[in-house]
Write a structure and sequence with these properties.
The complex is a heterodimer of chains A (about 400) and B (about 600). Chain A is an all-alpha fold. Helices cover about 70% and strands about 0% of the residues of chain A. The chains are: A mainly alpha (about 400), B alpha/beta (about 600).
Chain lengths: ~400, ~600
């Protein structure tokens, strides 16, 4: 079945900062040199070609976009200087925007002004809301903001994001499944199918997302190789784990609250654990994010060559959330310290940005946390299948 | 060079006195051909058998008769022994007849007293199983050759005066440039063009690859340069309607189509350059959607782009935002069609698309190709077009693109793209350009008139594609430009100038030497039956008054020595110089008396 191509795909991609890939004559050096490309995921050549001919759907719903960690080796070897690695990054931005039907991502990626306005409006709404809610008599407060409201708003934001994420992921997953021939039966139809599904899940979530195995081992990293303390896979791992730790700390706190653990028990058992996890996580995340920002500022690697306002926004929000959280945390270490007016403002900022960070997940670079595991799941399935076919 | 003989009216070329056959001194060389002959023929036995032959002064068996060293030895031997006849038994005359004629010439011996005996193709190669038989056969063949040389005449090449004027047929870029080139060399040029305007295809074009020069302007410049020259005469709306005479002295009739009736012009020219150009391939109805609104050929598209100037590109009033080019239309077809590559069209299409890009870089352009043959510097044009955003889609000739109207109203070209993993794509476009190749122009009258040889592709054929690229088998008729093969403008001009050089080589001496191997009529024997007049394919025989009666006369300048007139003559009055009845009878006689071994019947 012939696909009607989109003649405007190239010009549209250029709005997302695509390099000049017209120079590409499909030699395939990039795919040959790529440490991550194999028979189950061939890129970047094929993806440049998809853009050239205008196959939008295949481009934005592909798993291959998310198997790339942008080491930049392809760009170093490209005889036409078409910059395939930056193209892959642009294609990811484009995919995020294209899969988001609200068009917020598109606006934030293509217009710096829109990006700034949207984030400021978001902050104003969250900040204004939390500043305005009146604490009822006897309500528990966090720096003057009622506990209940933080929890309720947090819950609403997370549900909203989850709905959007599920919708977008479904679009991508359905298209990828169709292309790769993955069906409900092939996933759950038999015991062997269940086994394969489980192994692919473990590969995606465990080995790759949490373990960052190929990022660490196969993407033997940028050229020139960075010192270990600022190597990309390491700062990425610290950022990821730091973020997860902060998220876990919040959840622990929240969960304790929901199941109604008595305040004394919470004070004695839950709070110290949550706070320790949170503090360590925050430090790890801030370390990682700081280096990401320095790398982008210094343009040290292929991955840091081009930064869209949306990319900066994501890093700044992570960084400010981490910093404000840490300051508040430290201020609590001094026994007897009274909450100061500035700590109230600081907390407002912290909460507003954290909320916005989560809310913006489907619209910014943050979206990779939802697309990449799904892509890697399909990649895991494909690899598994071909492993089975190989003679023992 | 002084006092060249005027031969037209002479019924017989001059014959020199010849030595009596019994006094001839002949050299015989039997070549080993490095084993090609000597492995299957007892060369020494042949040499010894011939040594005793009457009139044979030398009999030798070189390893390679054609080698420089042996040629030198032969020259020495001819001079030292006062030879007046030479026989080399070796390969086909096609290969080395000229070589040994030249050896004779260099040794001051008449080259027409040389006889080549083909004992390789006709004996050693075909009788590899029978050395004794082959040897016996070779002895017979060589004796036969000796007999022919023994009776040879002292022939001299015919000289004809040539007219320093060339007829150029076709006023396209090749013909125009050739006319100017001829004039520059001091040869008058008569340029005729069938159309009312000069310029041909190039004259209609705007910017052309590789330097963006306008075709129209280049033609205009050439016309300006030619216009005021006395040595170039141009006739438009003119056709060649008759040709007589021979190389160096063609009498041509040109018909001028003028208002109020045709006018006829008779001229004498020494040579003819044919530069009649090509036709663009006209696709069949429905071939890649041809006939649908929005499907055009490359020349039509180029005209559209040239006419657009700097304004927005539009077709039939509709803006053109996307174009698909389908390459190799009418070229590289399957057996029976046009199997050749037209060579210019890849670059022409790429260049046209570059013009479109410079009009508006936003116009989306897809090039559907089998192979891009933008050779030489044109590769750079190809690169530039790709970098300007043209998308190149490679298809397999087994799955050619299809053109259809889409529901949205625009044209859809569906193609299987080999570079996108054989993905089947439908390209929605406003315009489809069929990149058509060149086909031979319909020119039957001219072909019949000049007896021009055609290749299997329908284009005119040269004698040799590398070493004699502009000459045809018709003496003094040259070909240039796209009537010979598909070409670019630069290549056509080069071919035109090559034809000029070749014309100059023929005409600048003022005379031409022709082979004296022509038919002659014995006036005493001829009864004037007229049989030979109709047998001659070259119209070389006429009936003349002789001694009060009508006899046949052969024009040696146009006679090709084919021998077609000889057997039809009831009076046995015609002889072919170099192959006289006397010579041929003697040669056959030798073969008859040579004893042939009787073969044992195979059980």
């Amino acid at each position: 079945m012939a696909t009607v191509v989109n003649p405007n795909l190239m010009s549209d991609l250029q709005k997302f900062g695509a390099p000049d890939i017209n120079a590409c004559f499909s030699c395939g050096n990039c795919t040959a040199i790529c440490p991550l490309a194999d028979n189950d995921a061939t890129f970047p050549r094929r993806f440049i070609r998809l853009a050239q001919v205008g196959l939008t759907d295949e481009l934005v719903t592909s798993k291959e976009l998310w198997t790339c960690y942008q080491c930049g080796m392809c760009t170093d070897r490209c005889p036409q200087e078409a910059d395939p690695s930056e193209f892959m990054a642009t294609a990811r931005r484009y995919a995020i925007a294209k899969l988001d039907k609200t068009r917020i991502a598109r606006a934030m990626y293509t217009s710096p002004v829109a990006a700034v306005i949207i984030s400021l409006v978001g902050l104003a709404i969250f900040g204004g809301f939390f500043a305005s809610v009146q604490a009822e008599e006897g309500a528990r407060l966090v720096f003057g903001v009622p506990y209940e409201w933080i929890h309720t708003v947090g819950l609403v934001v997370m549900i909203l994001v989850a709905l959007i994420a599920v919708f977008n992921l479904a679009m991508m997953a359905r298209a990828t499944a169709k292309r790769d021939g993955v069906t409900a039966k092939s996933l759950f139809g038999s015991k062997a199918a269940w086994g394969r599904t489980f192994r692919a899940l473990w590969y995606s979530i465990g080995v790759e997302s949490l373990g960052q195995k190929r990022y660490r081992e196969d993407c033997a990293d940028d050229n020139p190789v960075e010192p270990l303390y600022r190597r990309r896979w390491l700062i990425h791992t610290l950022t990821l784990w730091g973020f997860l730790a902060l998220f876990a700390a919040t959840l622990i706190h929240y969960a304790g609250d929901i199941i109604g653990v008595p305040e004394a028990v919470a004070e004695a058992a839950i709070t110290p654990v949550a706070r320790t996890i949170g503090t360590l996580g925050g430090l790890a995340m801030m370390y990682g994010v700081s280096w990401f920002m320095i790398n982008r500022y210094q343009k040290v690697s292929a991955a840091a060559q081009h930064s869209s306002p949306s990319d900066w926004l994501f890093l700044w929000m992570l960084w400010i959330t981490g910093l404000t959280g840490f300051i508040i945390e430290v201020s609590l270490l001094f026994p007897g310290a009274q909450p100061q007016p500035w700590s109230y403002v600081l907390f407002l900022v912290h909460v507003a940005i954290a909320m916005e960070l989560v809310l913006f997940m489907p619209f910014t670079k943050f979206a990779h946390v939802m697309y990449r595991p799904v892509a890697l799941f399909f990649y895991g399935l494909a690899k598994d299948e071909h492993r089975e076919l190989q003679p023992a | 060079m002084s006092e060249p003989e005027a031969t037209q009216a002479t019924p017989e070329p001059a014959k020199h006195d010849k030595t009596a056959p019994e006094d001839r001194r002949i050299g015989v060389y039997i070549c080993h051909c490095g084993g090609n002959i000597s492995d299957y023929v007892d060369v020494e036995a042949v040499r010894d058998a011939l040594a005793d032959e009457p009139n044979v002064v030398i009999s030798d068996d070189p390893i390679f008769a054609c080698s420089d060293g042996t040629q030198q030895d032969m020259i020495q031997a001819i001079k030292a022994n006062g030879l007046d006849g030479l026989v080399v038994a070796s390969c086909s005359p096609k290969l080395h007849q000229t070589t040994f004629r030249n050896v004779s010439k260099r040794a001051d011996m008449n080259p027409y007293a040389y006889t080549q005996v083909n004992v390789r193709e006709q004996a050693s190669w075909v009788h590899q199983h029978d050395k004794a038989g082959a040897t016996e056969k070779v002895i017979g063949l060589v004796r036969s050759g000796v007999a022919k040389s023994r009776l040879s005449d002292e022939l001299v090449p015919l000289r004809v005066n040539t007219v320093p004027r060339t007829l150029v047929i076709g006023g396209g870029i090749a013909g125009l440039r050739a006319a100017k080139g001829l004039a520059d060399l001091g040869i008058d040029a008569i340029l005729i063009e069938r159309q009312p305007e000069l310029g041909g295809w190039v004259g209609k074009l705007g910017a052309m690859f590789p330097h963006e020069d306008s075709g129209k302007e280049q033609v205009a410049t050439l016309i300006d340069e030619v216009k005021d020259r006395r040595d170039v005469t141009v006739y438009t709306a003119a056709e060649l309607t008759s040709k007589a005479g021979s190389f160096g002295n063609y009498e041509v009739e040109i018909t001028l189509h003028r208002e109020g009736g045709d006018k006829v012009l008779n001229l004498e020219v020494g040579s003819i350059i044919v530069a009649t150009g090509f036709d663009s391939y006209n696709p069949d109805d429905g071939e890649y959607g041809y006939g649908m609104d929005g499907v055009v050929t490359l020349p039509q598209f180029k005209e559209l782009v040239d006419a657009t100037g700097s304004g927005p590109l539009s077709y039939n009033g509709r803006p053109v935002r996307s174009v698909a080019y389908i390459y190799c239309v009418g070229s590289r077809q399957e057996a029976g069609g046009n199997e050749y590559c037209s060579k210019y069209c890849c670059t022409a299409a790429i260049h046209a698309s570059s013009l479109v890009s410079s009009l508006d870089p936003g116009i989306r352009q897809y090039h559907l190709y089998r192979d891009i043959r933008a050779y030489g510097r044109n590769e750079l044009t190809y690169n530039e077009s790709r970098e300007a955003g043209s998308v190149y889609v490679k298809f397999d000739p087994d799955t050619p693109p299809e053109v259809a109207k889409l529901d949205s109203g625009v044209l859809g070209v569906t193609v299987t793209d080999l570079l996108t993993g054989h993905a089947e794509l439908t390209l929605p476009v406003d315009l489809v350009v069929l990149v058509t190749g060149m086909v031979p122009r319909e020119n039957k009258t001219l072909i019949d008139l000049l007896k021009l040889p055609l290749g299997s592709d329908g284009f005119f054929n040269e004698i040799h594609p590398k070493l004699r690229p502009v000459e045809t088998v018709v003496d003094g008729v040259m070909i240039a430009g796209c009537c010979q093969a598909p070409r670019t403008m630069g290549e056509s001009v080069s071919a035109g100038l090559a034809a000029v050089a070749q014309s100059a080589a023929l005409l600048k001496k003022g005379f031409a030497e022709l082979e004296p191997l022509v038919a002659v009529v014995d006036p005493d024997k001829c009864t004037g039956s007229g049989e030979c007049l109709t047998a001659c394919p070259y119209d070389s025989i006429t009936s003349i008054e002789w001694d009060g009666r009508q006899i046949a006369s052969v024009d040696p300048a146009t006679c090709k020595g084919c021998g077609g007139c000889i057997p039809v003559c009831g009076a046995d009055a015609i002889d072919l110089l170099g192959y006289t009845d006397e010579q041929m009878k003697a040669a056959i006689e030798e073969l008859v008396v040579t004893e042939m071994p009787v073969k044992e019947p195979v059980a």
